[in-house]
Amino acid sequence: MKLILTEEQQFLKDTAQSFARDKTPVTHFRELRDKENSQCWDESVWKEMVELGWSGILVPEQFGGSEFGMAGISVIMQELGRTLTPSPILSTSVLGVSVINMLGSDEQKENYLPKIVAGELTTALAIDEGNHHDPFAIDATAVLDGDEWVLNGKKVFVVDGASADSMLLVARTSGKSGESNGISVFVANKDSAGLDITKISTADSRNYANIEMSDLKLDQNALLGEQDLAGETLEKILDLGRIAISAEMLGNTEEAFEVTVNYLKERKQFGVQIGSFQALQHRAAKMFCEIELTKSAVIAAMHAADENSNELERLSSLAKFQAGETLHLVSNEAIQMHGGIGVTDEYDIGFYLKRARVAEQIFGTSEFHQARYADISGF
Amino acid sequence: MEHLEQFRQEVRDWLEENCPPTMRTPLVPEEEVWGGRNAEYVNPESKLWLERMGEKGWTAPNLPKEYGGGGLDRDETKVLHQELFRIKARPALNSFGIWMLAPCIIEFGSEEQKREHLPKIIKGEIRWCQGYSEPGSGSDLASLSTKAEDMGDHYLVNGQKVWTSYADKADWIFALVRTGPKEPKHNGISFLLIDMATEGVSTKPITLISGKSPFCETFFDNVKAPKENLVGVENSGWTIAKKLLQHERNFISNFGLAGGGTGSGADVVNIAKKYLGEANGQIANSAQRENITLHKMKEHAFGLTLQRSGDEGAKASAASSMFKYYGTEHNKDRYELMIAAMGNKGLGWTNEGFSDDEQAITKAWLRTKANSIEGGTSEVQLNVISRRVLDLPN
């Protein structure tokens, strides 16, 4: 495994970089935030992304996708992260596609994947139920009643849950909370009776929802994969999500850092550029080192996913851990080094801090992944 | 690829025939080979192994064949290292000459200097030491004051160096000397090669907090150094000095992953399990387990960064200063975690009450404190990253 990009991946990265710079600079995010748009991402921008083929990067060719893999989609996420560009890529093109492709039957793939590629369908993966990510702590239930599944329970902090056309609902069909066995995944139209979706308002002004299932009735086709046996595959799907959001967080970090270093070169106090102060220089140099480590962890994880490496779990946790730690550090230092203007709403740097803390929570914090890494490694 | 596989087979066959049996067993510190005129070989097979590898040029695989090197390209060198690693071969030669000086002689030296010095370095016949720091010139290296006066056919050298690694065992020294006392400080420095056997050169070991003496003070008292031993142009030695420091940093930062040379092959996780005990297969103390996990994750990401830097080649984004800074700080951290895990067993000084491995770790812990000072302190590395990489103002 070489820790560099192929020409094809580099091309995707360059394309995404121009796209973000020209079509969705941070002002685009600011406008969306100020509009109080319930969706928090822009329909026409998403349409352009779909035309570029980004919705189908993980989709097999037979269903209209390009199979450019996790490396392909991660470099796009990274560049979009630089300008805080909101889109349903994570919820739909990474998680939705993976759930359907890795768990679904041929018929289900045929039914959903081409629609996702065409941009006609968005999805949201509803898994977490508590204040902290804990993938097997599932209390929501699904019980077979005649020829119908009946689902009850709640889901929280569902990424893009407020806008998705279809919900991918993780529920327990046997066993008890904490067990990997007994977990099943269902697909439901957002308008289904018994499915109550409430948008929540978060600091990063993105799209999340809480969901209540009260006797939600679904037909047998709604079950994705085998009853009780989705746990292991779901963990792998989450790893793909973790890698993708780590790449986005790396992009957030790189941009916040570069903007800050530029500010250090411009801002003058005591008659000199503040970047000439060693107190700031050494902190900037340490951030540089952590960013280099993050780049390595992210690229190793995305290639591991594409090569089906048995190191995927460890590398995915390493990537999310390192991306989280580094973004946490850089988002805090970026504010401090900007001084007064750093805490004004008018200046963009605060957006990175607010996005950072939310992204750190998604699919497990650094602490979660540190514990997971220790367990996998046998420490 | 076919060529490489063929080369691999050749290497494998040659090693099978030429690597002596005891050279495939774990290295013990007293059998480390540094070469030189006065080398003593506790194990005669170490000498044989050095001679065979030196003859082949594989002690310096990527240096040109015409000067005694292996003449291998990057991929071939990698294959050689993989094959050496496969049979767990000991290093045939440790050498500041190969790690630091040879690349600079290749880049800046005259044809005569290349022919004179490189083959002896590669064969381990001459052992070199580095004359950089002075009592008044540590981090501010360019303020050095050891002077070399032009006396026609030779320089007359007077002054003192400090922190000269193994000066008492070395045959020659590559030294930074001031040839232009009136020039601005960076512009009056020359890079001079001096035979330690010359009259007026003397050394005195410095005992460190670890109780060992890897460093010396080196004194020059009216030492005559022939003019032909100047490398590059007079007063332009700073350029060479900086280049050499890069080689040194790369070399030291690799310590960060190599385990710091305790000779005990100590791994922090195994140490922790042994001295803290295990609970359900886990390190029993949860706070120390967390600290160690953090350390191992940083180590993993740092290792991937070294790998990525190699894969990126010339386009690499990370700097040698970063590797030096991070690798040495990380190595210090490893030993702090190790002795913390060992509790009172991590603080032994002699064999009264402590095993050899335990004492070795205590001594290695103390030795690591110098890692982030020698070869440019961590603070100097952070300065270099700020100025050169981030382009922050002076």
Describe this structure in words.
The complex is a heterodimer of chains A (379) and B (394). Chain A has eleven helices and ten strands. Chain A is an alpha+beta fold and 379 residues long. Chain A has three domains: 116 residues, Acyl-CoA dehydrogenase/oxidase, N-terminal domain (Butyryl-Coa Dehydrogenase, subunit A, domain 1), CATH 1.10.540.10; 105 residues, Butyryl-CoA Dehydrogenase, subunit A, domain 2 (Beta Barrel), CATH 2.40.110; 146 residues, Butyryl-CoA Dehydrogenase, subunit A, domain 3, CATH 1.20.140. In chain A, the strands form three sheets. A four-stranded mixed beta sheet of chain A has the order 1-4-5-8. Chain A has a four-stranded antiparallel beta sheet with strand order 2-3-7-6, with no helix packed on it. A two-stranded antiparallel ribbon of chain A has the order 9-10. In chain A, helix 4 packs parallel to helix 7. Chain A is globular. The two termini of chain A are 25 Å apart. The termini of chain B are far apart. In chain B, a hairpin with a 3-residue loop joins strand 2 and strand 3. Chain B is of the alpha+beta class and 394 residues long. Chain B contains eleven helices and ten strands. In chain B, helix 1 packs across helix 3. Helices cover 44% and strands 15% of the residues of chain B. The longest helix of chain B has 27 residues. The interface between A and B is large, with 38 and 40 residues.
Topology summary:
The complex is a heterodimer of chains A (379) and B (394).
Chain A: H1 7-22, H2 26-35, H3 43-51, H4 69-82, H5 89-103, H6 106-117, E1 123-126, E2 141-145, E3 148-159, E4 166-172, E5 183-189, E6 195-200, E7 208-219, E8 223-224, H7 231-266, E9 268-269, E10 272-273, H8 278-306, H9 312-338, H10 349-361, H11 366-377
Parallel strand pairs in A: 1-4
Antiparallel strand pairs in A: 2-3, 3-7, 4-5, 5-8, 6-7, 9-10
Helix pairs in contact in A: 1-4, 4-7, 4-8, 5-6, 5-7, 7-8, 7-9, 7-10, 8-9, 9-10, 9-11
Chain B: H1 2-18, H2 44-56, H3 74-86, H4 96-108, H5 111-122, E1 128-131, E2 147-150, E3 154-165, E4 172-178, E5 189-195, E6 201-206, E7 215-226, E8 230-231, H6 237-258, H7 268-276, E9 278-279, E10 282-283, H8 286-312, H9 320-342, H10 356-368, H11 378-389
Parallel strand pairs in B: 1-4
Antiparallel strand pairs in B: 2-3, 3-7, 4-5, 5-8, 6-7, 9-10
